[in-house]
Specification:
Layout (H helix, E strand, L loop, with lengths): L1 E6 L4 H5 L6 E5 L2 E2 L3 H7 L4 E7 L5 E7 L8 E3 L34 H7 L10 H10 L4 E4 L5 H8 L7 H10 L4 E7 L6 H13 L4 E8 L16 H21 L5 E3 L1 H7 L21 H12 L10 E6 L1 H4 L2 H12 L2 E6 L17 H8 L7 E5 L15 H7 L4 E4 L3 H4 L3 H5 L1
Parallel strand pairs: 7-8, 8-9, 9-10, 11-12, 11-13, 13-14
Antiparallel strand pairs: 1-2, 1-6, 2-3, 2-4, 4-5
Helix pairs in contact: 7-8, 8-9
The protein binds iron/sulfur cluster.
Iron/sulfur cluster binds next to loops.
């Protein structure tokens, strides 16, 4: 059963008299368990929907709709499948206390993997889930592999009952499912020979593995479970050597790359980041794979669109990780616009000095960085720091913070999105 949250005006559902709170029980005789069933079973245009109205009355809707016209129903959010593992490196275990409750949810849900690109370990997937993945062709899935070696994976996920991931992937691959995989590397546990085995096993799955990312473990000052080693420059360099070896082989034998090191690895190892061509369609950019290359590309492509802003003083807030790469970008922006860009490097007060990603700065960090900068005309902050409701991770409201700061502040993904697209706001 799934429940209706909203009915869109002038939709088929409104015409049928469906109300919020109605429970949808089955479609064409197939029982509904969740939003996926609803989405896939209502793909037909001739539907018989069994439902229970909010007053408890049972009702059957017979729908014959013009091809492809949406029914106009939004469902209540699904119950997220919780994670059965207890990884020492779990980022959620490394969160400070006192944040919004939903930030502590350890989801491990293949449905969200397909729908939103969330990584899932598949360790809580049952036979009926495999059948659904195959029937509904939930592809591609984003899979946290970490290690294909079964014993190593049990240790990494801290769960002796995890299924064999190679068997799972092979079975799904045989049914036409494709994967984007990641290996979060804990030095001493799944680097070296274990990583080599993982990459070899994934390579042997052929074109079912669309991409494989090698990502360093991210430990905050609150990661109380973690007993492993921290990632260092030498380990990061060694990981990139594995990546380069498999990347070269892929280019040689398949004509395209499939394995990537995260940007953070290159920064840690102090190696030059690859150019945009290396990343193909940037399939794991949300995972920090190719974000720098993409940013460089977007800035270069947008320079011609910049208005002249001679003499304007523009503050650019970022985290420590990006600080080393910023001057090159800000020089290009300065040359094309005439504005004076000033780099402001902020540290995450919430996660501690080991977390240097700009996207994990919080409202308090932005306030500390900008509150006394009366010398700036405007400031740009990383847009990734606020969610779709305009709230930072520390619950600070962006609009309230903005009103309290001495200059207009703009969340920006790549500078061009603000400087070229909103020239009046910037010039005001
Ligand atoms: S799989 Fe591991 S890292 Fe992911 S949510 Fe579960 S415990 Fe955390």
């Amino acid at each position: 059963m799934v429940r209706v949250a909203r009915v869109l005006p002038e939709s088929i559902a409104e015409e049928l008299g469906i109300e919020p709170g109605t429970e949808l029980v089955s479609v064409n005789g197939r029982e509904l368990h969740d939003f996926l069933d609803w989405e896939f079973l209502t793909a037909d245009d001739e539907l018989v929907v069994e439902a229970r109205e909010p007053n408890g009355d049972e009702v059957v809707y017979e729908v014959s709709r013009p091809e492809g016209e949406p029914l106009g129903i939004t469902l209540e959010p699904p119950n997220v499948r919780r994670c059965a593992n207890r990884c020492e490196f779990c980022f959620i275990e490394g969160l400070p206390t006192g944040l919004r409750r939903n930030l502590y949810i350890r989801d491990d849900d293949y449905r969200l993997s397909f729908t939103y690109g969330n990584f899932a370990t598949l360790s809580n997937v049952k036979e009926r889930d495999i059948a659904r993945i195959l029937e509904y062709r939930l592809s591609p899935l984003y899979v946290s592999v970490h290690a294909t070696n079964w014993e190593a994976r049990k240790v990494l996920l801290n769960n002796p009952r995890v299924p064999n991931i190679v068997d799972q992937l092979r079975r799904l691959a045989d049914g036409g499912i494709r994967f984007h995989c990641q290996m979060v590397i804990v030095p001493g546990l799944n680097d070296g020979a274990v990583l080599e085995e993982s990459l070899s096993d994934l390579w042997n799955l052929g074109d079912a593995v669309l991409s494989a990312a090698v990502v360093p473990v991210g430990i905050t000052q609150f990661s109380h479970l973690y007993t492993g080693r921290a990632m260092d420059a030498a380990t990061a360099g060694a990981l990139l050597d594995h990546v380069a070896k498999w990347s070269d082989r892929a280019l040689r034998e398949r004509g395209e790359n499939w394995v990537y090191g995260s940007d953070e690895l290159y920064l840690l190892a102090e190696r030059e980041l690859p150019s945009a061509e290396h990343y193909g369609d940037f399939s794991q950019i949300e995972n920090g794979i190719g974000a720098v290359a993409s940013l460089r590309e977007r800035v270069a492509a947008g320079l011609d669109e910049l208005p002249r802003m001679d003499g304007r003083r523009i503050g650019v807030v970022t985290g420590k990780a990006m600080a080393i790469l910023m001057p090159e970008l800000l020089d290009q922006l300065r040359e094309s616009s005439g504005a004076d860009f000033q780099l402001i490097v902020a540290e995450s007060s919430l996660f501690g000095p080991t977390i240097t990603t700009a996207g994990l700065l919080v409202g308090a960090d932005i306030e500390r960085a900008l509150a006394n900068r009366h010398d700036l005309d405007i400031a740009l902050i990383p847009a990734e720091t606020i969610n779709e409701d305009g709230i930072f991770l520390d619950d600070v409201d962006f609009e309230k913070l903005r009103a309290a700061l001495p200059m207009p502040v703009f969340p920006s993904y790549d500078f061009i999105d603000i400087l070229a697209a909103e020239p009046e706001a910037v010039a005001a």
